[in-house]
C-alpha cells in the first residue's frame, strides 16, 4: 500500500462537537445555584451585622446590593471569558466531551477560589487612589466601584463576542487606572498622581511578560518532550473521534484541572478584593476589622508598634506635629514625596493606633462607632510604610526595613482578610460563568491560532506552562492573565512544531491585548465622571 493510500485510509481529524444545547433542567439548576448564592450573601451580611442592621439606613444597603451584584457579574463574565482557555485543549484532543470538560473546569475553578490566599486581591486594591479607599462608602467610593466594574464587564463582553481571548486581569487593571486618573484630574491634580504607578508597573510587567513566558516556555517544553519522550502518538492530532491513549488523556485532563484551579485561585481574588472594599465602606462595623484575631495578637501588635515607632522617630529629625497627622500621611501616599512632616506624622499615627488597640484590649472590642476610623488609620499607616520601605529617600537600613515589615504584617492581619462567605459566592459566580458562553473563545484557541489541528503534546505543553506560571504568580501575589499565557503557549507550540500560525488571528489577538488597557481606562474614567455628576 502506498503512502498516499495509507493517508486516504487513515481517519480524518474530526472537529469536536461543540453544539450541545443545555437541557432546561440544567439551565434552571444553574439559575437556582446563582440565586442561592445571592441569598446566602444577603443572609451572611445580616448575620455578621447582628442587631446593628435594624438601625441602619436603607440607601447604603441598596447601593451595597447593587455593587455586590455588579462585582459578582464581573466574576461570572470572567468565568466564561477566561476559563474557556483551560478547556480548549482537552476538547480539541477529544480527551473530554465539551459539556463535561466545562463542568469539570467550573468545579476546579470553584475549588481554586476557596483555597486562594487573598494576596492578589489586596494587590489589586492597592492600585486604587487612597482617598477613594478611605471613603469607599461615600458617593465617590460607589462611583469608583461601579465605574471600574462596569467598564471591565463591557470590554470583556465585547472581546468575548468577537471571540478574542483578551485578558480580564488586564481589563480590570486598566479600569482601575482609568478611575485613578479621572479622580486626580477632577480634583485639580496631575493625572499621574491618581495611581500607584510603582505597583501598576510591577503588575504591568507580570501581565506583559506572561505572553512571552507562555510562548517560549511552551515551545521549549514541546521540543524537550520530543527529545525525551519517543512516542509518535503523542505528537499526532486525534484521528476520527477516538480518544487518546489513557496516559496521554490523563496528562491532558491533569493539566486542564491545574489551569482551572490556578485560574480560580488567581482571578477569583480580583472580585474578592473589590467586594471587601464595598463591604468595608457600607458596613464597617462588621467588615472593617478582622474581629476573629486572638487576644494574643494584641500583645504582639503593641510590641511591633513600639519597635516601629522607634524606627520612625529616629528619622523624624526633631519635627513635631500639631493637629491631625492623617492629611500629611495621605499626601505622602498620593505624591510619594517625603517632607519634613512625613516621619513625625507617621510616628504620631503609629502611637495613636497602638494606644487605641491597647485600650480596647482586643480587635473585637473596638467600639462600633470607631471601627471605621481605626481601620482607616491602620490602612493609611500600612500603605505609608509600604512606600517608605521602597523609597530611597527614606534611607532605611536593612534592620529598619525588617522592623517596619513585621509591624506592617501584624497590622495587615487586622485589615486584610476575606470572610469565607465572600470566597464561596465568588467561587460560585466564577464556576457558573465557566459553564456559560465558553464556545467562542474555545473555537479561537482550538482552531484559529495554528494552521493545523492541535496535537496531544501541544495541548499538554501549553497547559503545563499556564498552570505553573499562574500558580507561581498567585504565590507572589501578582495577577497574571490565563488568556495571555495559554493562548500564547498554544502559538508557541505551533511555531516549535512547524505547524504554522494564522497571522490574521494573531494580529487580532495582539490588537486586543494592546487596546485593552487604554480602552478600559477610557471607559472607566468616563463612567466615573458620569457617576460623579449624577450622584
Annotation keywords:
single chain, 535 residues, mainly alpha, 22 helices, globular, disordered N terminus
Could you characterize what this model shows?
The protein is 73% helix and 0% strand. It has 22 helices and no strands. The protein starts with a helix and ends with a helix. It has helices at residues 3-9, 24-49, 58-82, 84-92, 98-114, 119-125, 130-134, 139-161, 168-186, 197-228, 246-282, 284-287, 296-314, 326-335, 342-360, 371-390, 398-415, 420-434, 439-447, 456-475, 482-496, 503-534. Helix 4 packs across helix 19 (439-447), helix 11 (246-282) crosses helix 18 and helix 13 crosses helix 17.
Task: Write the topology of this structure.
Elements: H1 3-9, H2 24-49, H3 58-82, H4 84-92, H5 98-114, H6 119-125, H7 130-134, H8 139-161, H9 168-186, H10 197-228, H11 246-282, H12 284-287, H13 296-314, H14 326-335, H15 342-360, H16 371-390, H17 398-415, H18 420-434, H19 439-447, H20 456-475, H21 482-496, H22 503-534
Helix pairs in contact: 2-18, 3-8, 3-11, 3-18, 4-5, 4-11, 4-19, 4-20, 5-11, 5-18, 6-11, 8-9, 8-22, 9-22, 10-20, 10-21, 11-18, 11-20, 13-15, 13-17, 14-15, 14-16, 15-16, 16-17, 20-21
